[in-house]
Amino acid sequence: MLKIEAVSEQSLIVYFGDTIDEAIAANVNRAIFQVRRELDDVVTDIVPSYNSMLVCFDLNQTDRFDIIKRIKHALASNAEGLSDSSDNVVIEIPVYYGEEVALDMADVCEKTTLDAETVIKLHSERQYRVYAIGFSPGFAYLGSLDDAIVMPRKSTPRLKVPTGSVGLADNQTAIYPSSTPGGWQIIGRTPLSMLDWESRNLARVNVGNRVKFCPIDKQEFLAQGGVLNDSEGK
């Protein structure tokens, strides 16, 4: 399913489906490069999401009717062999799952009827696709969780979630790149900074990348610059 809708005078959104799906996400990722390859002279920005991409364009170079026609032509072009290496990039993220930082682990264990060791194992044994980056700079939405640890958001969000917190919400997991309000169920924390000020999108990870969480102990967490003070997340 391909649907194109205007968002503003200088932007439109291209829908590839209406579900969170690996195949649809791959189509979005491939389409980004098809459009950039064919329309680089008029496109000013592309923002991908789970099943769509927002395309911003230079109104001095084109108009809505022309760019829709050109986007359809670009997406119909031969995409064989067209990709970057993002789908093959696996980024390992160290995570400390200790009780000092796993602010909601007890609630997760209660709701799932699993012990903390099993929750950690299920969370860290698979690779997650980066479906989208949003909410705040560098905040990557990763999916999908093992069904056994799918969790609803907190009924009362925290006013501040500590930087580096790793959380669960519905069938997704994510890392808070900065201290912001949030309602995800926090089960650990990474010592790594998820913001990369040298990159184009400020994020350590890009849409299409794979993320693998690697459990570390308290000593390693502190050695890598991790901070245990969770007062801001209480």
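Second entry:
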Amino acid sequence: MSELVVVPLHIGGEDVAAGGGTYVVVNPSTEKPFGEAPEATIADVQAAVDAANAAAPAWAATPRRERARLLHALADRLDQERGRLVPWLGAEMGGVQNGSAGRTLDVAIEAFRAFGERANLDLSENYAPRVSMGEVVSGVARRRPVGVVAVIAAYNAPLVNTSTMAGPALAAGNTVIIKPAPQDPLTTLELARIATEVGFPPGVVNTVNAVDPEIGRELVRNTGVHGVGFTGSPTVGVEIAQAAAAQLKPVLLELGGKGACIVLDDADLDIAVNVLSLTWRMHSGQICGAPTRAIVHESVRDELVRRLAAVAETLVVGPGDHPQTTVGPVINGGHRDRIEGYIASAREAGATTAVGGSRPDVSPGFYAAPTLLVDCTPDMAAVREEIFGPVISMITITEDDEAVAIANDSDYGLVNYVVSGNSARALSIAERLESGVVSINTPQSAGNGIEEMPFGGRKLSGFGRKGGIHAMLAFTEPAGIVLRS
């Protein structure tokens, strides 16, 4: 790709040059420019809000089957554009093309198709006739779209973050304004253009984008935006929730994670390795559901460390477009330095590096080594805080209650894991874990692996649930209607 990829804003069905000009998007594998992204202004935000509101009544009145058809058409078009979009994703997010970049597109396609199916659902609730105050009455609760939904995505999986929020919002009859993460916005901006090309009416799918955080703040606090779906850090999530609360807007927040993987003394260690190595293999650990805390029974600890070290030797760190690469770069140099800082602080606090720990000898690119820290304690920053990189911190335990207590001693509660040969024992532990999702003897896959299930977190991991009809409910409000017979 010798020429820079340039994608404008898309507002009201038209490509629009951003009022603030453009900025350069850098390929994390090469440290070279890949594209130019638009820098929106407050005026651009207002234009998108106006377009979305103008389109909202007609889109809400559009028959469910037509909304379903368009969502399927969008999914089909994304699939057809795979040969163009996967290299874009790999270049801007640093994803491995036969790994996280390709999977990101796959999940987006699956999400739009799934919500295309759910767009046909009647979410109404009917109430049988009964006597009230001397009259016979019956009732129905209709689900009405909230109106205009702002979808604000994180950089780690841009199309996944967008499709799993915008998909249900559109299926439920809302119009959307999508704000990608500024680090890798180009493919997401292109998504809006494709949506218009496949037939979504003008103003139903709009975009704004900017490095300036004030643009996101304006989008959230604008009175013409009626709901917010956000994927990102707890710090920003709390700020969004506070801003939305001032107008009592509904919010759906999928925030950070510090996944605990409890490995019991009866565990199949091949399964445990498969689960834990997800932190290394999937987008260099830049996933909120990664099992970054290994809470391991002392009887299997040494063998598990040995097996993880053996797996680490097979990993190939390098550019995302190389066919042999299994671990690509992290998003930028600043984030790489942050990851390395956590490793250094853990060592200073007494942890030992069993795997990795030193910067890979790969240049150019922002590469962080797949790392396993052992002899960790629950109070270490590397154990408590979200590193968002390919780093596993291991804590040794002796019994189940201790494992549960350590797993729950966290500000986060998104995805936890249990590995055990005894299903009843594993389920008993899973039901005590303070997280939105628990995976037993399986790695996380595309959220939680079952698309109908709710996906979301507790504590600083978020508020509300994606998956199935749950996000459609988040972006609708019930309206009760009582009828006298």
